[in-house]
């Protein structure tokens, strides 16, 4: 009987194998390599040495790591928690009020930025924020002279770009969640001024509390991993001003050939992902008794 | 029509415009032989840019590679996820919960973070520059989400039909094949397309794991051809980008028509 | 007994999974041997591709059982280095013959990527035709030779005569000191603010170009140096280093160079050659002897009148001290992969690609300074462009990068320092101090020299 019960689980094996080989093994290897001086070139490439905590010590004595960690926090907070999340909720609320034609048109526009291949989105954002790009063209229409966004305000540019690219996800989540909220409740929320805002805060939002929590977790994790967008737009520059942790890990490992240090940075990112993941799983468990 | 409604329309339209603005450049530059970074209506619109990128080495081979990678990734996902979802959906076991939660946990690994170690692993296993291995890796990164979605789709297929089949002597795998899968065709399609779209747009993974030009998908070839900063052929870049994006946009439309636009979330969030 | 049925359906999947991951690369056919050749190709660098295509034809005609697979990597110098290194790590992706920058030779020899060529070179008659500097370019710490250069280069000031004349500066122009450069640049700026008076690369974007075509011309013209060859130690804390950074800061702060934003663009050099010089928007810059290759017929940015419109000058030492000027030399080589299964054939291909005919074609098309004495004597080489003589004479004042395995990482540290200075993130003093700290960390306190 018990054997049978185990046999029933057999079809799970391919998935488990895949997850072990391609997800768990790299994670394990990452932690291992972060204690070595593995490199792309030089003597350490042929014969990597165990260096103990050296990479981690360097991480905190270097300027670039604390800066990258801080930039990552700002990038995630501003583009995911604030940008995508609030904008997505706002769009979803507005859609409940507006004409069908308008809401479906806007929905398509928002989703298009999300469905585009990331490299295409990145090129489009690069052109948009370029010194001669569309954004400055529009500012010029109002008589303003825009800065060279990618150079002067690289962090602002990548935050806006990531908000643009990712809001669709939050919008879809909140549309689905609001669909379960009685129309008059959410509608009233937007209607009568101060009272409406209060209703939004005290009635609607508590009703979709679990969706908000899940959404926040998911977009935080997605934003934590953003690489291509930043790499194409600013390559982490100028002078590391937009180097988030994934960009730092790539640069150290592949551009400067320091695989050991690169994996140490990657390991920190993995730990961050695990922490957020644990919170996420907890949230879901509490939701479903 | 009430004022708040008009206000909502206007507010939405403004937001919508902000989202479209960065894409306008793409569309206009593609038909402008003298495109720069400015968004401008071309003085002499033409299809020259499309003509220029319409070559086997620039367009067809990378797109074929993209297709092989994406379809392979989606197929691996489908097979593995269906198999895994079946016992999870059909049998009560004390392993189910821990397994589902660890799967969920898997979705939270930042894939860009593990690329450095994955590269190291691929070197050790001599899998570098292998399409097959890259497919399996990409499939694994989307697998947790696929299993989660698949289980939810499967849960919605009533158990009674299968129980009847078991009575008739069919094995559970046969029941899965002949009864459950046909009933969740739509769900299978959704998972396939969901994974396909993700793989199609993936840049970083093939950028690190596939080294020879002949194997690189469009995401990588577009990057190396136009250089890190778009080089000088902006119009061609835009034209190529459009040709490369159209397939996934169409697929998305196809799916959202059939199951509603929140398809991608049906498994992950509401589950 | 229905349960076994399920096994039957599942097992093949598992097996397929394992099989697919285990043997993903197809083994080479037993009979027909293939050689994998990896090199760089880009929209502005096709000279090597042409040579490789020719060499492939020549080689396959002479060796009918061998297939030569050309695998050009489309990337700039920096990304090419990364991609090549990524491929080197694994025996089944490592190339048989590849294009390698001289400054990476020692580091990659240490990594075990390059095959020692001494025993092969003995049997190659043409080797005696390579000049001494060329032979040294591929030498590693153990005295063995691991790479054969395709050509070499020097660096000089290139200037647009018309732009200088418009600002009232007499041509030919030859600045004697750093101050001369600044005063001329300021004069140009004053006469036409829309012109970029004197550009020098900086930052990580231009990679090795930042040090070779900018920072080292400054540093080696002070009384300091990067590396003490006698003591075999890296120099830290030198005034020359700080002063060189300060010079760059002056150029960028006074807007005598491009804007820092443009300087950090990895493709800024394309604009230098493709737009600014031909359109008269740039007065002068420091660039390599290969400059004419972009403008000559068949080059990436053909410019019919460049021979008349451009001039070349030696980069001066700081106060004009002996020997009066500075240049830097580098160049690229071909090497054989240490993991090559057909080393003999790979070397044979290398000699085909570097024979007199192909070397001449490469040196002419890519405006390289010849390293083969027989090529250097060819009239078609000497008359390839009007600047061959000028840039070849700079060999007298030229410097080479420290030939050590640590060099590539030190170079990155220098690039970081220049980027911090021109973007205003750090003062020259602070950036130099951070460079010193990085060097100490990279090579250890025992291998630095305080000066």
TrEMBL record, chain A:
It comes from the Bacteria. It is a multi-pass membrane protein. Residues 70-280 form the ABC transmembrane type-1 domain. The keyword Signal does not apply. Its main location: membrane. PROSITE patterns: ABC_TM1. Keywords: Cell membrane, Membrane, Transmembrane, Transmembrane helix, Transport. The chain crosses the membrane at residues 12-32, 67-93, 105-129, 149-165, 216-239, 259-281. The keyword Ubl conjugation does not apply. Coiled coil: none annotated. It is found in: Cell membrane. Signal peptide: none annotated. Pfam families: BPD_transp_1. Belongs to the binding-protein-dependent transport system permease family. This is Sugar ABC transporter permease.
From TrEMBL, chain B:
It is found in: Cell membrane. Belongs to the binding-protein-dependent transport system permease family. Its main location: membrane. This is Carbohydrate ABC transporter permease. PROSITE patterns: ABC_TM1. It is a multi-pass membrane protein. It comes from the Bacteria. Coiled coil: none annotated. InterPro entries: BP-dep_ABC_trans_perm, MetI-like. Residues 63-255 form the ABC transmembrane type-1 domain. The chain crosses the membrane at residues 7-28, 67-86, 98-119, 131-150, 187-211, 231-255. Keywords: Cell membrane, Membrane, Transmembrane, Transmembrane helix, Transport.
């Amino acid at each position: 009987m018990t054997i049978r019960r185990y046999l029933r689980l057999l079809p799970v094996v391919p998935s488990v194998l895949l997850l072990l080989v391609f997800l768990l093994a790299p994670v394990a290897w990452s932690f291992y390599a972060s204690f070595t001086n593995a490199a792309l070139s030089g003597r350490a490439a042929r014969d990597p040495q165990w260096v103990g905590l050296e990479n981690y010590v360097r991480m905190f004595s270097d300027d670039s790591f604390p800066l990258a960690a801080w930039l990552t926090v700002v990038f995630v907070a501003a583009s995911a928690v604030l940008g995508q999340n609030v904008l997505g909720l706002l769009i979803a609320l507005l859609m409940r009020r507006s004409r069908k034609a308008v809401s479906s048109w806007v929905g398509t526009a928002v989703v298009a930025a999300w469905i585009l291949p990331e490299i295409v989105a990145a090129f489009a954002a690069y052109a948009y924020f370029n010194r001669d790009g569309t954004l400055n063209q529009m500012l010029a229409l109002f008589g303003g002279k825009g800065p060279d966004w990618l150079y002067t305000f690289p962090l602002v540019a990548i935050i806006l770009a990531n908000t643009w690219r990712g809001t669709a996800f939050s919008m879809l989540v909140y549309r689905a969640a609001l669909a379960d909220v009685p129309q008059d409740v959410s509608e009233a929320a937007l209607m009568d001024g101060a009272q409406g805002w209060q209703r939004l805060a005290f009635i609607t939002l508590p009703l979709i509390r679990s969706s908000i929590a899940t959404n926040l977790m998911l977009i935080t994790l997605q934003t934590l991993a953003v690489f291509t967008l930043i790499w194409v737009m600013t390559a982490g520059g100028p002078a590391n001003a937009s180097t988030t942790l994934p960009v730092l890990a790539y640069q150290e490992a592949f551009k400067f050939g320091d695989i050991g240090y690169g994996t140490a940075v990657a390991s920190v990112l993995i730990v961050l992902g695990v922490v957020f993941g644990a919170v996420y799983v907890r949230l879901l468990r509490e939701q479903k008794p | 029509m009430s004022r708040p409604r008009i206000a909502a329309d206007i507010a939405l339209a403004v937001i919508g415009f902000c989202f479209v603005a960065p894409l306008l450049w793409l569309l206009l530059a593609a038909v402008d032989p003298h495109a720069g970074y400015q968004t401008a209506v071309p003085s002499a619109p033409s299809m020259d840019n499309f003509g220029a990128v319409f070559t086997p080495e620039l367009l067809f081979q990378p797109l074929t590679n993209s297709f092989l990678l994406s379809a392979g990734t989606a197929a691996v996902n489908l097979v593995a996820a269906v198999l895994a979802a079946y016992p999870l959906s059909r049998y009560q076991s004390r392993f189910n919960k821990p397994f589902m939660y660890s799967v969920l946990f898997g979705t939270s690994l930042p894939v860009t973070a593990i690329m450095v170690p994955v590269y190291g692993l691929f070197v050790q296993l001599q899998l570098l520059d292998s399409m097959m291995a890259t497919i399996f890796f990409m499939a694994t990164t989307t697998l947790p989400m696929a299993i989660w979605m698949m289980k939810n789709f499967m849960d919605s297929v009533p158990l009674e039909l299968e129980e009847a089949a078991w009575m008739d002597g069919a094995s559970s795998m046969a029941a899965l094949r002949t009864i459950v899968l046909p009933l969740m065709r739509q769900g299978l399609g959704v998972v396939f397309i969901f994974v396909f779209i993700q793989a199609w747009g993936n840049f970083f993974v093939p950028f690190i794991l596939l080294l020879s030009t002949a194997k690189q998908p469009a995401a990588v070839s577009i990057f190396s051809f136009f250089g890190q900063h778009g080089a000088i052929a902006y119009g061609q870049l835009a034209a190529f980008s459009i040709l490369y994006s159209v397939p996934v946009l169409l697929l998305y439309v196809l799916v959202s028509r059939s199951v509603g636009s929140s398809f991608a979330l049906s498994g992950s969030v509401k589950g | 007994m229905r349960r076994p049925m399920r096994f039957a359906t599942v097992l093949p999947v598992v097996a397929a999974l394992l099989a697919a991951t285990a043997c993903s690369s197809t083994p080479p056919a037993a009979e027909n041997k293939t050689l994998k050749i990896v090199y760089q190709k880009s929209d502005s660098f096709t000279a090597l591709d042409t040579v490789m295509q020719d060499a492939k034809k020549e080689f396959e005609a002479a060796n009918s059982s061998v297939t030569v697979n050309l695998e050009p990597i489309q990337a700039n110098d920096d990304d090419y280095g990364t991609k090549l290194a990524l491929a080197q790590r694994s025996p089944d992706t490592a190339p048989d013959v590849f294009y390698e920058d001289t400054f990476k030779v020692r580091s990659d020899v240490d990594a075990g990527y390059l095959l020692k060529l001494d025993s092969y070179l003995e049997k190659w008659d043409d080797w005696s035709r390579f000049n001494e500097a060329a032979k040294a370019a591929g030498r590693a710490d153990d005295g063995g030779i691991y790479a054969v250069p395709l050509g070499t280069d020097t660096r000089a000031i290139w200037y647009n005569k018309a732009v200088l004349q418009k600002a009232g500066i007499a041509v030919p122009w030859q600045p004697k000191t750093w101050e001369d450069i600044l005063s001329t640049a300021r004069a140009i700026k004053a006469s036409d603010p829309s012109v970029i008076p004197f550009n020098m690369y900086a930052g990580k974007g231009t990679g090795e170009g930042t040090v070779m075509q900018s920072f080292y011309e400054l540093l080696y013209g002070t009384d300091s140096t990067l590396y003490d060859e006698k003591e075999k130690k890296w120099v830290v804390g030198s005034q020359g280093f700080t002063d060189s950074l300060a010079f760059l800061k002056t150029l960028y702060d006074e807007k005598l160079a491009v804007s820092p934003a443009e300087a950090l663009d990895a493709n800024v050099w394309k604009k230098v050659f493709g737009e600014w010089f031909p359109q008269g928007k740039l007065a002068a810059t420091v660039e390599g002897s290969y400059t004419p290759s972009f403008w000559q017929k068949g080059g990436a940015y053909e410019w019919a009148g460049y021979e008349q419109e451009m001039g070349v000058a030696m980069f001066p030492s700081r106060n004009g001290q002996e020997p009066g000027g500075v240049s830097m030399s580098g160049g690229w080589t071909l090497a054989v992969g240490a993991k090559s299964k057909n080393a003999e054939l790979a070397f044979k291909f290398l000699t085909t690609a570097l024979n007199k005919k192909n070397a001449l074609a490469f040196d002419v098309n890519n405006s390289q300074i010849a390293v083969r004495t027989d090529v250097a004597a060819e009239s078609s080489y000497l008359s390839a462009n009007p600047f061959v003589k000028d840039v070849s004479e700079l060999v007298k004042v030229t410097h080479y990068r420290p030939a050590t395995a640590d060099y590539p990482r030190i170079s990155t540290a220098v690039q970081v320092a220049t980027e911090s200075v021109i973007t205003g993130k750090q003062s020259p003093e602070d950036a130099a101090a951070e460079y010193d700290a990085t060097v100490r960390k990279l090579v250890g306190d025992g291998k630095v020299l305080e000066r």
